[in-house]
């Protein structure tokens, strides 16, 4: 039986099948292993790891620690949101999500059926997102954090797009460049539509073969988007390079530093930020503050200057003032 435990519950003899480390690349290899000595167990307890998944059929049990059901986690997050935003703000953000849903559903299901990833519906969706991010950025970002398993791909794409629009405006990109950033965010993971659902929704560790398949999604997405003559070059670049890292340890090419475009660096930051602040079947959602702290602490993953700017862009728009204490304009996010 698979069981999620906290790092302080780790002990020798446990069989570890997955680790919830906020800075671990989700597509990086994670091998199952038996924890054999106290030194290794102590290292885990002193680490940044939040939780681990153990297999009690192959190692010792802890006797406690049931995973938080997704519905329960999302219910508590929803009540957090209603404290942070007014009903109107929540309604407007939900409207944006519902307006973009049919466009993205059609686009993504078309790709799954072997069709093209067309520019036009993505552009129309980003028009809605960019409008909503002008008036109500924190509510849209807050609501897209509440992802159920079925909606994860749709809401992650929407959230990365919204974050890239917001960040692009903070960096004073012109509106056309902001729009292209938004489309890049929406389509960055389109290659995943070509992966078997059994791999994408698998709980626990992927096999080496499954991992290798997941790591092809930037190239497969790029190839798909390249078939569209009207697809901007930046959208292709972001799709291909959003898993590269500044220290050269990313994939698919291991590019480093200046070899990675500004837009792909922005996408890497927004992609990881949204993944970390969202609940998954195997991990709880981190708060924005925890997420930013961990990202700022990480070495070599992100462009440090851009990451500091991203931090400032969120702090500038998302003040921790609850709605009943606000006079105007300020937004809250937890
Ligand atoms: Fe990706």
Summarize the structure.
This protein has 334 residues and is mainly α. It contains 14 helices and four strands.
Could you describe the 3D structure shown?
This protein is mainly alpha-helical and 334 residues long. The chain has two domains: 2-55; 70-325, Hypothetical protein af1432 (Orthogonal Bundle), CATH 1.10.3210. Helices cover 52% and strands 5% of the residues. The chain is built from 14 helices and four strands. It has a four-stranded antiparallel sheet, with no helix packed on it. Residues 64-73 and 327-334 have low confidence and may be disordered. It binds fe (ii) ion. Fe (ii) ion is lined by residues 189, 217, 242-243.
How is the topology of this model organized?
Layout lengths: L1 E5 L8 E6 L12 E2 L3 H8 L5 E5 L14 H15 L2 H26 L6 H17 L1 H8 L7 H19 L4 H13 L9 H4 L7 H7 L2 H10 L6 H9 L20 H15 L11 H10 L6 H14 L17
Antiparallel strand pairs: 1-4, 2-3, 2-4
Bound molecules: fe (ii) ion (FE2).
């Amino acid at each position: 039986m698979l069981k999620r435990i906290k790092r302080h519950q780790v002990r020798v003899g446990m069989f570890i099948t997955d680790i919830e480390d906020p800075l671990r690349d989700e597509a990086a290899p994670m091998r199952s292993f038996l924890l054999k000595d106290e030194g290794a167990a102590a290292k885990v307890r002193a680490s940044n790891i939040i939780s681990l998944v153990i297999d009690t059929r192959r190692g010792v049990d802890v006797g406690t620690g049931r995973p938080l059901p997704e519905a329960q986690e999302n219910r508590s997050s929803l009540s957090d949101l209603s404290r942070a935003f007014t009903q109107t703000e929540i309604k407007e953000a939900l409207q944006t999500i519902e307006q973009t849903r049919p466009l993205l559903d059609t686009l993504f299901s078309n790709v799954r059926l072997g069709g093209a990833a067309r520019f036009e519906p993505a552009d129309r969706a980003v028009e809605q997102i960019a409008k909503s991010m002008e008036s109500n950025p924190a509510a849209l970002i807050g609501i897209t954090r509440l992802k159920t398993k079925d909606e994860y791909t749709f809401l992650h794409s929407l959230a990365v797009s919204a974050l890239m629009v917001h960040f692009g405006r903070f960096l004073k990109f012109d509106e056309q460049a902001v729009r292209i950033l938004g489309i890049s965010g929406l389509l960055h993971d389109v290659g995943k539509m070509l992966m078997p659902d059994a791999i994408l929704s698998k709980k626990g560790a992927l096999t080496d073969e499954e991992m290798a398949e997941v790591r092809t999604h930037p190239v497969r997405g790029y190839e798909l988007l390249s078939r569209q003559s009207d697809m901007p070059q930046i959208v292709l670049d972001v799709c291909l390079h959003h898993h590269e890292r500044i220290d050269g340890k990313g994939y698919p090419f291991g590019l480093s530093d200046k070899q990675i475009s500004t837009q792909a660096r922005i996408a890497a930051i927004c992609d990881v930020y949204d993944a970390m602040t969202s609940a998954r079947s195997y991990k709880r959602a981190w708060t924005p503050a925890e997420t930013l702290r961990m990202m700022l602490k990480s070495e070599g993953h992100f462009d440090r200057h851009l990451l500091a700017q991203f931090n400032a862009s969120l702090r500038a728009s998302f003040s921790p003032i609850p709605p009943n204490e606000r006079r105007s304009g300020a937004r809250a996010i937890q």
